[in-house]
């Protein structure tokens, strides 16, 4: 059921001992890897992992990077220069490199030992989306090298995810329209999450709000909230609180309870409101970030519409040198 | 030269094999640990490490946490309930726990196997400050278990750091006053850094600006800047750019160059402007965060003064249940 490209990587992982996984990308491509770091932390008995922005990875140059490392990289157009450089750096150090990209003929594809070309369309089964591929690789590795038993359930659940996502998006439309109308004049909107979902909070803050809407933002970790950030909460401060289904849900529920007590502009996006159908309960926590991301994309569309500020508008990106 | 309490931990590390270090705390206490994660990544050939907010650590419950883990925790008053719970959780899993606190008779001190009571005063040699103790533990571990050779140089340099810090603070006063006057009406101030310094950018954003000044903020990673956040840069947006002395300085210089080209409110705090005296060049990158933190504390004082908003003002912290 998995693609030939993913299959080739898993085959290589039968032969090659991995001690450490590095998840390396920038911005939105990095954000989609956070859930895999969570999964590795929860599941891996021996294999260690770290997540870095590509430039940080190259300059930090971890001493542990070497032949027993698996470096997974991602760039949509495959042209992100920092990520291309990271792939080259990792190969030079003898690491196994696997890149995810939408462009088969791109610098990142050429710089990496293995390439997986993903799609982000409507395809069903949902196995060739970058979030899905990340889990196929990570759980594939854990299955092969540590005998982790969640692999089959996870792949089966990913394969069935498309209708869940479509229904969740449909369901979210009305609330998203309301969000767009209510916050079209907002100067700042915070996002909050924890565990497997933090990356989605980060993505919405930096890619949607800051990049595509020019609205100030910051993805606050729900557990860190009470150790500084919560002091900025006034009645009118908008906070989007994500509620996922992983083990850290109590952390998110706690920050939400506080925000709702003292704030009046708290938006809740709860993965539990979704019709999960036949998806196995044991892996819903890992899949929740994918659902939350699709739902938040609807929020992004409605915000852009209400503000008459298309999501494609840029000041600097791809326009000026940087 | 090291305290008896640090000595006892290092003695235990002669006997106990460590595979993984967990750095666990909340807010400002967590922020001061980021530099140690950087040092571990740069220096450790075998030992892995991760940094978590305390609640995230407890609920995430990493599968690798066990008898070969060293968990370093920190809480100033030793009462942070999430961190106390984290210490208990780690001990239950058989890990070696070491807590840093200002209060010898506190719940955290009682919950941990080893306790190091730090001071934050004017003491010279500068060896009993929490930042210093973090490095004593981390480089002590690397020295004992991996034969890392920077330990002696680092301890000698830490011991001599006090005059460097005092001079840096004195030198910063005029610029800090100017900063306070210029930005006393600011609604949002971003901070930016990378590598060993990112934790200081994070601390200034969440503990000083958000918590103590009720100013919106977000610590942007200098490498991530170009992948979303930079789109919010307009002429009047204030950004504090840290420049450290570690390997990632080019990342920070790149974000600064862009900000200075399109922004007019860019504040630079450069560890290179400091008189480092006899401090060995090979460890200045690791010590730069400590210097930057002391300098930014002066900025915090002057901002509070200019705004007539004392750093001790709180809306919620220690006042309402959360």
UniProtKB/TrEMBL annotation, chains A, B:
One Pfam family it belongs to: SIS
Record keywords, A-Z: Carbohydrate metabolism, Hydrolase
Source superkingdom: Bacteria
Residue intervals of the SIS domain: 9-148
Principal EC category: hydrolase
EC number from the UniProt entry: 3.5.-.-
GO molecular-function term, one example from the UniProt record: hydrolase activity
CDD domains in alphabetical order: SIS_1 (cd05710), SIS_GlmS_GlmD_2 (cd05009)
Description of how the protein assembles with itself and partners: Homooctamer.
Family matches, as PANTHER family: FRUCTOSELYSINE 6-PHOSPHATE DEGLYCASE, GLUCOSAMINE--FRUCTOSE-6-PHOSPHATE AMINOTRANSFERASE, ISOMERIZING
Record function comment: Catalyzes the conversion of a range of fructosamine 6-phosphates to glucose 6-phosphate and a free amino acid.
Official protein name in the record: Fructosamine deglycase
Lineage, broadest ranks: Bacteria, Bacillati, Bacillota, Bacilli, Bacillales
